[in-house]
Amino acid sequence: MGLPGVVEASHMRHPDFRAANGRIFATINEDDTRGMAALTPEQQADFIARAPDTFVPAAGAWGRGGSTMIVLKNADAEIVGEAVTMAWRRISALPASKSKAKKRSLSKKPKAKAAKG
User: Does domain 7-97 have CATH number 3.40.1180.10?
Assistant: First the structure.
């Protein structure tokens, strides 16, 4: 993807893209027809105003929170790249995900000393 620290993984049987903190900032659905960028509600409104055939709020609370669906058949690479980069910046600024923080704390536990016998 060309952004520092990005890891491609899988979430709910479809590809996702995670920032270095382990949090998802973008996804692609199973049939590669739609993507998602985790924007702010303000960013979402801007992209919808600029390209209403490409950007659509996700359903329910996710959409109200800024999760934005991208209709890939209507997508222009430049504006989608802009949206995904904004999502990456926003998500990268957050603390590590719970699972990433848990893995980190598990790796820092002191090792048990071997019993003398």
Answer: no
The amino acid present at 60, given as its one-letter code, is G
Burial 22-45 (b: 16+ CB within 10 A, else e): bbbbbbbeeeeebbbbbbeeebbe
Tens of pLDDT, residue by residue, the chain (117 residues): 577 678 777 766 778 888 999 898 999 998 889 999 999 999 999 999 999 999 999 999 999 999 999 999 999 999 999 999 999 999 998 888 776 555 544 445 555 555 555
